[in-house]
Write a structure and sequence with these properties.
It is built from four helices and no strands. It is mainly alpha-helical. Helix 1 packs parallel to helix 3, helix 2 runs antiparallel to helix 3 and helix 2 packs parallel to helix 4.
Length: 101
């Protein structure tokens, strides 16, 4: 009998999944998706530079969930798709308070 092995999700995949789950049925423009991916990569680079992967992972997960929730709950969100402007507006509101930027 062979054992089935599942690949463990990487932190970057987890951060992206968290945001996409919160976005739900909202589509993302290509520019918005690229910006989300850039935020994930920058967060991973920051974790590696600080050498505090375990202690920062939960905080970063919470920050990505907060960002995605802020975007989805925005009064200015276009119903057709999440745009780059929506992400930048949310970052502008959250960056002074949360270390996601």
């Amino acid at each position: 009998m062979s054992a089935i092995q599942f690949r463990q999700e990487t932190p970057g995949e987890r951060y992206l999944r968290i945001m996409l789950e919160i976005f739900g049925d909202h589509k993302l423009s290509d520019e918005a998706l690229a910006r989300v991916e850039e935020l994930v990569v920058n967060s991973l680079d920051r974790i590696k530079a600080e050498d505090e992967e375990e202690s920062r992972t939960l905080e970063i997960e919470e920050n990505f969930a907060l960002l995605a929730t802020h975007i989805v709950n925005s009064d200015r969100l276009d119903e057709s798709a999440i745009r780059l402007e929506d992400i930048e507006r949310a970052l502008g509101a959250l960056c002074p308070l949360y270390p996601i930027c």
